[in-house]
From TrEMBL:
Keyword Flavoprotein: yes
Domain Flavodoxin-like fold per the UniProt entry, residue ranges: 1-196
Lineage: Bacteria, Pseudomonadati, Pseudomonadota, Betaproteobacteria, Burkholderiales
Keywords: Flavoprotein, FMN, NAD, Oxidoreductase
Known EC number: 1.6.5.-, 1.7.1.17
Protein name (database record): FMN dependent NADH:quinone oxidoreductase
Subunit structure: Homodimer.
Gene that encodes it: azoR
Keyword Oxidoreductase assigned: yes
Name of the top EC class for this enzyme: oxidoreductase
Organism of origin: Achromobacter pulmonis
Binding positions for FMN per the UniProt entry: 9, 15-17
Summary of the function given for this chain in its UniProt record: Also exhibits azoreductase activity. Catalyzes the reductive cleavage of the azo bond in aromatic azo compounds to the corresponding amines. Quinone reductase that provides resistance to thiol-specific stress caused by electrophilic quinones.
Amino acid sequence: MSILRIICSPRGRASESYRLSQRIVERIAGAAPAIVDVDANTLPHVDPDYAAALSARQDPGGPALERGALRRSAEQIRLLREASHIVIATPMHNFTVPSSLKAWIDHVVRVRHTFSITPEGKVGSLPGRPVYVAIASGGDFSSSDPRRQQDFLTPYLRYVLGTIGLTDVTFFSVQGSVRSPVELEAARGRAEAAIAAHPFEARAIAA
């Protein structure tokens, strides 16, 4: 068993999303698992060589593949292929994914490597395995309150991960994290109860 965790908050291991992701990791593995942490904040944005590779009819050869964003892309795709479980720890920024997570997505959603273009549309090539997303948001986005904020994060992640073959995606969230300490503890309790009730073992066997 190996877990790939993508850390997206600029606060890193001090963040609410990381804290929530730890609860998920503990439930997946029970004992000490092999965990590979990737700090998405350190990933560069894609560069000219990467853009040229995506627009070409086939991948370029030579030194371009060994430098810059193409090299980092290959590394991140390899880590995805090697992992049995994926955990994404992310805040919600301006109703959607933070720029760090978008940079990681741009590295791993790569034509001819994680998906192919067919007459029927894009087809993912990554083997299916569970993905768990730990979200921290300052406001509520899933309540029935008409004042709730919009959520463009969860539908986008479900769609873009599905594009590369990762269709088994589960979301857990601590919402209203900027409210009072009492409300934050209540939100944490709800998220941890959802994690405790989730059948991680059954999904691990199915994967």
